[in-house]
Structures are given as C-alpha cells and as structure tokens.
Amino acid sequence: GDSTYTRNVYNGQYVAPVLRMKREERLDVMVSNQMKPVGTQQPQSQVDTTNQHYHGMIVTPLPDTGDNVTNVPIGQGRSNRNAFYVPDVQSEGMMWYHPHPHGRTANQVAGGLAGALIIGEILDSFPDFAGAGGEHERVMYIKDTRDNTSTAYLNINGVPCTGFTIAPGEQQLWRIANMTGATWVNLRLGERGRGYRFIVLALDGNHLTRPTPMDSLFLAPGQRAEAVIIGGTGPWGKVAFYSSPFPTSFNRSNPTQVNLSARVDLGTLEVIGGVQPKAVPPRALSPLTIPENVALLDSITRLRTATDVDTFTIHYQFFPGRKPFPFALNDSSYVPGRLDHAVAYGRTQEWTLINDTWFNHTFHIHQTDFVVTEINGVPQPDSVHLDNVHLGIHQRPDGRWAGDTVKVRFRFLPIARGPFVYHCHDLAHEDLGMMANMCVFNPATGESECDQWFDGGHGGHASMHGGHGAPGGHASVPAPPPAAPATGRKRE
User: Distance (Å, rounded) from C-alpha 429 to C-alpha 489?
Assistant: First the structure.
C-alpha cells in the first residue's frame, strides 16, 4: 500500500529469489548474516544469529553443510555454506527456504526472509497441462507483514491487493506458498458455488495421485499448493481472490462457541478476452478423467499397510502464564542440545498427534514426508504425501468443539541420518517452546550414534550456540562482501 517498512531480507529483495534446480544436482548456497537491528520489530537480539532451512527437502541434516538448524548458527558478520546432494527420491515441486534460529524464527520470517525453491518441472508429469508453464506460471508468496505496531497484513509478493488476468481457456500454473509466520488461509477464487476451481497437482511439493479439482485451498503456515486455473469462456469480469472464514479457536468456558477468522481479500482475477457466444462457467472446465498415478498410489498404500511399525504420541500443549516458554510438546518446552526422540532409518513410524489446546497448530517434520492415515478417528483413504499438516479443532456430535487428533505414517531414508527437529509451524508457537529435537540413526550402529550431536545424549541442556542469543558458532566463517541483487527467474 502506501506504507514503508525497514526489514532484513534476502539480497535486498522483499520478494526473495526463486531458486530452481533438478533432482540429482547439488544445491550450493552461501548464507551470510549481514542483518542489522531494526527498532522494536527486529532488535539486536533478534538478528544476532540466524541459519537456513530448506523446507520440504529430503536431504542430509549433517552439519556443517547440510540442512541443519540446530548445530550451525550463523552469527552477525559470519557465513555458512550449504552444499548437499539432492537425491532422486526428492519430490518435484515447490519447496521453500527460510531462517530457523530458535527464538527468532517468527520474527525473521515475518520480516521478509522467505523464498521459493522449485525442484524439477511439475508439468512434465501432467502433460494435459503442459501449456500452463513458462509465461503462464505465477509464483505467489503469501506473507503476513507486520507494521510497527505488530499488526499483520496479508499480501502476495508484497502487494496487498493484486490484480491477476487470464484469457478465456488459458491455463495458468499457480504455485502458492503460505510463507507467513503464523497465519492460516482458506483460499477461494470467486464466491461459493460461482467461482473457479483450483485443479490441484501437488501439495507441499508432492504430486497428487491425479489432478484434483478443489473449491478452496486450505493452507496452514508453511504449506504450499500447485494448481492450474483455466480461464472462463464468458463475460465473467472480475472475481475475488480471498481467504474465506474458518474456525480458529473455541471458548474454553463454553466449548459450543467457536471463533472464525475474518475474510481477507487478497486480490482479483479478471478474464481478458472476447465474449463467447455460449458462456461456460469456469467451474465446468475442470477435467476429471485423467488416470491415477499407479506407482505413486502404490507407494502410499505400502506405507499405510506396513506392519513394521514403531508408534509414538505427541501432545500439543499450552500453559498460560508459564514463562518464558508457555508452549510445549509432551509437557516439555524446547531445550537446545537435548535429544527428545531417536529412531532408526528404514522403520515405519506411526505418530499420533493430539491437540490438547483450543486453537490451531500444525505438525512439520524435517527430512521426510508423511501420509495422514486418520483424522479424529476417521480413516483417510485418499492420503497424499505432505510435510506439514493442520492440527486444528473440530465439532463433536454433541455440539462441543475439541482439538484434533491426527495419525501420520512415514519412513526415514538413510540420507536423513543425523540431528534435526519437528515442531509446530506457527512460528510463534515454535519460538515459545513447541519444538523438539530428534535424531535418525543407522540401525546397524544403534542409538548411541546420536550422542555426538547432543550434549549428554537424552536430557542434555546445552544450547547449540552457548545460550540464547549468543552469536557465532563453530561453522561460521567471515562474511563475504554484500551480495548484489539476484537476477534469478521470478514472476509475480
């Protein structure tokens, strides 16, 4: 709008560079901490250290060059190089990159440190929509920029009300990422029953077994969707692109009362082109006859029906008044350096996620994807691979609202061996304790292999960087000169 803010961003750009690569290539990125304090929004304590996470990537977490956020802090004036191989098992689609320093993540991401990392070319797997790429592709960063009073404003690529256009019959690939720090969105194009459908190809950078028409896209913080939009063949004018209301919390004193989010208008989509003699509603243009991806469906089925299963339960908790960390997983707030959970690669994991609070959370785990097998006791036969799942609230048959219970299954590959984290991707919840450390080890070596990454093994209490806020770290090197603005491919 007409407001100006000063924030710390990547390479001087609020819309960070869109990075593109293929599977079986090496990612090589130098991350340099040249941040400066910005008043009350990003004071010195919030910029004195950072790191880098590549969300959605199934790669090594080993320090110092892997996707590691617990052992490689980058102090002010220091740098660290991420350089790792991306295996052929990596899904093709939209991932993203952002900082992940405990206690500072929400502040740094909300300030503008977030960008897309696109792997491969998703349309190669969906030839029916081959024309939706290239100049017809839109990469959208949804952010919740905070002003100097900490009020959050939703925007797409920095624009609070974006005007998109489409021609009659044109296919456009929309790559949408919820890069907010703590905002859920329920995206719609047009009013209920009278708008466009999103023909969804992928969620969280993972292909669906077949393109699926959806009336709305519900994206928790950190989630992504890649969908095709087909221009209506008629005088449809403009339709609103907005986040529709959805349940956010319930009243603890009276669980029959629920709170809804407000509608937030993000922009418009306008059809530009001649009026067709026989108008066809955009909703009628969604193809439904594309065959299912049998190989992908089989991989999901094998995971759902596996019998070599280790079980684990995580309770999401909030303790009002408990300082300094009121959020917890299984009664414990995050402690850097403490090993909370260790598993052998190759074993099937079934984790039960229980929301003991009265408001929304998510579950995100690094170095793997998972499938959702059950929500509130209801089997989920149409599972897809995800790396982040909504853990919200639901209404019971008696009218009372309660937190969700979600079951997920996954299996770590050998490349995941090492230390990393799982957490709520409401980044304020994460910073305030809703995160835990885990380690994947070689079953032939045993759990003791994890001791090298954690102080004292289970129950250690040492910080990854010598205490909250201490800059520097064993992997840091002097920073190179300030980088010039990037010129990578980028489209609104």
Answer: 33
Q: What are phi and psi of 426, to 5 degrees?
A: -75, 105
pTM of the model: 0.91
Query: Closest Cα partner for 359 from 393, 388, 389?
Result: 393
Write the DSSP assignment of 233-301 as a string of letters: BS---EEEEEEPP-EEEE-SSSTT-EEEPPPEEEEEEEE-SPPPSS-B-GGGG----PPP-HHHHHHHH
148-185 b/e (C-beta count within 10 Å ≥ 16 → b): eeeeeebbbbeebebebebebebbbbbbbbbbbbbbbb
Give the tokens for residue 343. Answer: 């598993």
State pLDDT tens for residues 388-404. Answer: 999 999 999 999 999 99
Which residue, 97, 110, 105, is CA-closest to 152?
A: 110
421-440 pLDDT, tens digit each: 999 999 999 999 999 999 99
For the ranges 172-186, 267-281, 325-339, 373-387, which has the lowest average pLDDT?
A: 267-281
pLDDT band at 468 (very low <50, low <70, confident <90, very high): very low
Asked whether 67 and 82 are in contact (CB, 8 A), the reply is yes
**Phi and psi dihedrals of 186, rounded to 5?**
-125, 85
Nearest-angstrom CA–CA distance, 218 and 225: 9
Do 168 and 151 contact (CB within 8 A), yes or no? no
SS3 133: coil
- Among 49, 28, 3, CA closest to 336: 49
